[in-house]
Every structure is written in structure tokens, then in C-alpha cells.
């Protein structure tokens, strides 16, 4: 994780903008740039709110992402916040004067063409790829916005609230019928007449009825001030579904939770909100959403059509595809080296007639970043164990680059590869003279990446001239899409439409499911007449071979350098199973009487566990930073609790979070919802979420 910065002073390192797989889902470089731009917009909103004492809270998917993932939900692409209605209106009253030039404030009060009851702040009116704009928004040319949801009061009188809800539903129905032109004219006129009577209004003739109805919807929504209510509601959800109802006290206190490389403000009792909103919110659902993914897909298509290609990634070139097909046909017609991929029956190469010396084929692997090696390693094992091949591993240097093509620092990561892999200098290997039978590459971009590049010699389009067979293995380990058109399909499509996929003689992916996706996507791009070509060209390399297991074992045996530090931390409990007990501020604030008592009971359980288990109690950072200011009495109870922990058998209090850097040593996780839960699930570490009532 990059260093964290306060929201008002955002900085993003170059590495933030790399394509990245999170929880099996590919997050593209452009999505990262869109995320960074959203956070820039949020930063400006937060600064205005600070100046005017306006409170805001991360909400919906943004809140869920902060709690469950420590940032964006990997398959999410929007950023939502909420404000109490009074703060909402105060913000939009001042923001127009304080936001930078070019920003747009969207509410139905100020924009005739805007039709959403919620507010929105966007950084520009339309696509902008001028250099100044791109520098300001991290290379993202697309319109970026943040939704702001107003929270309205709920009448204490149940009958009055029921009557308001019915009026809200009728006026909303009338608005939609008029807008869509649906229903009979008589029915619409009667409904509109009823709406006028119920709300004591008369719609002006000569003015847009649709517009007047929309404004009336908002008027009904905001008629109960939050100051007079013990419950608040988000009306756009409450009216149709009768949910999104929260005790106002949930919003009384705020804390800042880590979010990407910054922090966002959330309601202190955020876990209660998420329980009410999503139920079992730690369970992952990669579907859903109310718009196409990514949110800027329409703008991307418009820009690509305008300039004839996508300016920020490779666009399939029919001529390059034709040349690749021709090369493939020529290679397949040769009888020698028809199949260079080793198998159990492959034999040593032929012998020289004069000397009798064995001539081995050459297989050259060109990994790039050391962290990418694991996707290439299974194929390396197969070649290394085949006596017909002499294998060379030549890590290639890479350079930082940006969306504008500027080249930055060169990186040589040879020293970072596993010790059991013998690496060589890529600049000293004579590709032209040796002409290896096989070259395996994993950089897909050639010259079309917005965050990294390699020397043009190592572009796939050039490497194919120095080998009989160029193999491309994707460096990323992502889950295959579940169905055509889902979010994973859309995200991964960017990595399929790449030069290396076109130029390589063979594409080897991790699974049969991923192979099916690659084939289907390339057929979608190139036409069904190319089906046979892609079905022959794309192969899967299923995991689980004996050679791979050996490599994992060797790697695990080599990774023991930190065991001494871990054992020193455990002290007298060294050698025991370790349970991380993670306590959050939201759990403490949820019910101050029950929460402290629950922790004491848990400590008693650990104390009685004998000599097999050690519990490491880790407080969330926000407890140490914010609890004393939020609730002094509760902070005193917590400090008393810490004293109890320090004198309880089988327990260690880890205030500085030392143990969080040793997840591979954990035997289990117990405690509250946090991004650690998702990491444990991915690592196969058992998880139990604390129940305050048990």
C-alpha cells in the first residue's frame, strides 16, 4: 500500500496507476486514474465542508469498500457520500463559488436538464484530453463525478409519516407517467389532480408539468427537517422500497477510515449501518450495480470514435492480425518444431553427425517484474525438466511511463527473483545469433501502456523475429468471468485486446475457463471466421503439477527469515497457535455497555484455553486516535480493559499492530469487520466475527 495522505493533501505514487488484480478482479490503469480523479473531487468537497462546518459521510458502496476492502470495492467505479438535508443545501449554496473553474454542480434546483433527486459534483462538462486537464486529473480525460445523497427526517408521528410516504409515492408515480408518456391521458390527469389537492399546490399552465412534478417530489422528500427527527431516511430508496431508515444517532460521531492511500469520513457506528443496509455485508457479490461498467465506457467509446482509436491502450489492428495469422500458418506448415511445448514424451535434441554432441533447443523466458514471475513459473518448470531444452531466464528491465508517453526511471529486478531461479543479463544474450526455438514473454502492452514500458527490442512485435515460437503468458492472476458481459468480462477485455495476444504464436493462460474467455473475446473482436485460429492459438496450463508443488515448497522453505522476529514477539507463547483478536471503534460505539463486557468475556475464554493458543489483541487505529474525543468515559473503560489484557494469560496486547505484518503466521481471526477479514479469507485463514450479544 502506498503511503497514506490526508484527503486534503492527496498524492498518488506512479505505482498506484498500475493494472492490478484485487480479489481476483482486474482493476485497469484507467480505472485507477478514474478512482484517483474521484478522490481529487472528494478532496475539494471535503475542503469546502471543513471551511463551512458541513458534515459529510462516506455512504453505500464507498462505506462498504472502506470497511470491507480498505478502499474501493474492486469491481465498483463510483464514489458516494451523504449529508443531512440541511448540510446538503448549505453545501450547494456555497460550493459553486469555491470549486475550481469548469466544475459543475448538479441539482434539480439549479439545472433544468438534471433529473436526479440527489446532488452531484462533476469536474467538467464533457471529455477533456487537454494537457492541463490530464495533469490535474492523473491522465483521466473523462467526466468524473461524486453523488451526494441528502438524508431527510422521518416524522415521529407514524400516521403523519405514513401519509407523507403515500403522497411521495403518488407524486413520484405522476412524475414518471408524465415523463415517460405512459398510461392513459384521463388517468394521468386524474392522478395529477389528486397530487395537487393532496399537496395544496396548483401547477402552472404553460410551464413544464414534468419539471413541476419533479420539484414537488423534492419538496415532499425534504418536508421533515432532520433536526426534528430521531430517524433519518434516504428518500430515493425509502419511497419505493421502504428501507434505508437509520437512527440519527448513528451519525452523531465520525471517524476516518483508511481508503486507498487516504482516509474517508464515516459514521462512527458504521457497522450498524452496513448491517441494516446489506445484511451479511462481509459476503462478496461481484455483480450488481445500476449502470454499465465501467461508468466511463460510453465516454471511452465516443473518444475512440472521435480520434479513430483508443488513445490510452492498444486498439486491435486488422493488418497486425493478418500478419500474425500468416506467421501462424507458415509455422504450422513446417514439420520441424511443429510443437515446441514440452511434454512427457519429448526427447533430447538430435546429435551432430561429426561430434555426436547433443544439441539442445533453447527456451528463453523474459519475465519483467519479480512479482509477476509466479504466472510464468509453471511453464518454466516444464521446460526446465525437459531434457530437450536449455532454459534461460532473462528478466528484462522496465521503465516507468505515464499517460503522455514520458519515460521515467529504469528498474532492474533480477535480485528480487527466487534464489532457485538462475537469472541472466538480458542485454548480453545474442538473440539474433542464437535464435532460440522458444521465447516466452509476459508484457502485453508493447508501447501502449500508460504506467510502464520496456525497451522496444522486447516488444512482442519485435521478439517474433528472433524465435520460431513466441509464447505470451499473462502476468496477472485474475478469476475468469462467470458469464459474458459481466463486470469481470468487461475489465479483462482490456487485457485480451493487447499486442502480445495478437503477435504471439501461442497464448497460454491459467485455466480452461480463462482460455474460453480469451477465445470468445477474440472471436467477438475478429469475427466468427477466426474461431479455429484462436482455438488453436490459446491454450491453458492448469496448475497443480508436481514441479509446481516442488517450487512452492522450495519457496516456502526459503521464506523463513522473519520467524525469529515473530517468535521474539510471542515470547513465552512462542510455538502456539495464534488468534488475532481485532477490535474496532464501531464495535465499541455500537453499545457501550455490551461491547466492553463482550471483550472481557472473550478474554476469559482465551485465559482458560490452556497452553495451545495465544490471542493477540489488536486495536483499530481509530480507537487510539479518536475514541477519547468521542466518548471520554468509554475511553477510560477501554484503557482499563488494556490493563486487564496485559495481565491475562494467553493474551498479548499489540497496540502498534506488529502482528499485522505476519499474516502467514496466523492460525485464525476473531473480532470485528475490517479489511483483514477479506485478506484472511483469501489466505485460507479461518474467520469468526464477534457477536456482541453472545
What is the residue-mean pLDDT, rounded to a whole number?
91
Which percent range fits the helix content? 40-55%
Number of helices: 25
> What Rg do the Cα atoms give?
30 Å
Flag low-confidence runs: 344-353, 544-558
Number of strands: 25
Protein architecture, described:
40% of the residues lie in helices and 16% in strands. By secondary structure, it is an alpha/beta fold. Strands 3, 4, 5, 6, 7, 8 and 9 form a seven-stranded mixed beta sheet that branches. A hairpin with a 5-residue loop joins β14 (398-401) and β15. α2 (60-68) packs across α9 (270-278).
Quick recap of the structure?
The chain is an alpha/beta fold and 694 residues long. It has 25 helices and 25 strands. It starts with 19 loop residues before the first strand and ends in a 5-residue tail after the last strand.
Task: State the main characteristics.
694 residues; alpha/beta; six-stranded parallel β-sheet; 25 helices
What is the topology?
Elements: E1 20-22, E2 25-27, H1 29-51, E3 57-58, H2 60-68, E4 80-84, H3 85-98, E5 104-106, E6 119-122, H4 131-136, E7 145-153, H5 158-180, H6 185-199, H7 209-221, E8 231-233, H8 235-241, E9 245-247, E10 254-259, E11 262-267, H9 270-278, H10 297-307, H11 318-333, E12 361-366, H12 373-384, E13 389-393, E14 398-401, E15 407-411, H13 431-434, E16 438-441, E17 452-454, H14 460-463, E18 469-472, H15 487-496, H16 499-503, E19 506-509, H17 512-526, H18 531-537, E20 538-540, H19 546-558, H20 563-570, E21 577-583, H21 585-590, H22 592-607, E22 613-619, H23 621-630, H24 632-646, E23 651-653, E24 668-671, H25 675-683, E25 687-689
Parallel strand pairs: 4-7, 12-13, 12-16, 16-18, 18-19, 19-20, 21-22, 21-24, 22-23, 24-25
Antiparallel strand pairs: 1-2, 3-4, 5-6, 6-7, 7-8, 8-9, 10-11, 14-15, 14-17
